[in-house]
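Practice problem: predict the structure.
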Amino acid sequence: MRLRLPILLAALALVPAYAAEVPFSGRTLEISGDQGDGSIDRMLGAQYNIPGTGADIIGRAQTCAAGVNGLTVESADPSAGTLVLRASTDFRSGFTTRTIRSRIDLGAADASFQITESEIAVREGAGGAEAFGPLTRASGGWEKGLEALIGLENKLVDCLYR
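Answer:
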């Protein structure tokens, strides 16, 4: 009986941290590790309904992204209905300005699309050094950072509906 407890504890220590889903501003955040302080791994948006084929939507999204400061097209495959963007924007947190960045995957099908953000990172230090680290809920101002990313998403979505 005494041997079972250490084996059970060792097995539990090897189990990877779970991911929790938490609602935030009409989106779903995937948080790994501790729900209170864990890192924000993904932000999943709602599914939007819009006229057009998947290829049409991706074509329009590419054009729209080119007009949004802070978005850069990384790759596009209209026939597969996929568009990958890089997002980067500044936000105020306390008395400092921080930079937040992410990868945006836009998946489109006939008459709909959905946006998922991943690789969410924030630059903690000032200056030109690339000191980006994961955005965690323990980070001060994490909500403002996500709202800044959502602002870029909203500009893209608004353009798609014009």
